[in-house]
Amino acid sequence: MNKGIRGFTLIEVMIVVAILGILAGIAFTAYSNQVMRSNRSDAIATLNDVSQRLQRCYTTYSAYDNAGCTIYNQLDNGVVESFEQYYEIDFEAGSESATTYTLVATPVEPPQTKDTNCDDMSLSHTGRREPEGCW
Question: How do residues 102-118 score in pLDDT, each as one tens digit?
Fold first, then answer.
């Protein structure tokens, strides 16, 4: 064998490939989690917007469920999609639907459907936000 020729053995190359694969897997998982966390802002912005519009209805009509309230009619006829369409916003009337409500954002588009930490986010008429760690 010629002593002047040097190179990598197949085992050394395979070890490097395995290490790179492990690092790529960790990096991709961290990236995916960060994307899901940043997309939660879509739900937060839409929940806040719908809540503010409902508060305007309450100021005008002294009720959240008045027929003259445009956003209530949209919510009553179905759900409202979030701005970037990752979530659907649903209106859950409280025991007194004229004076209480809870808005619930449910993920409908990937990657948010894989967000198991914050699958449903809610905002009530009192400003209560759940789950706490998602806001």
Answer: 999 999 989 999 988 88
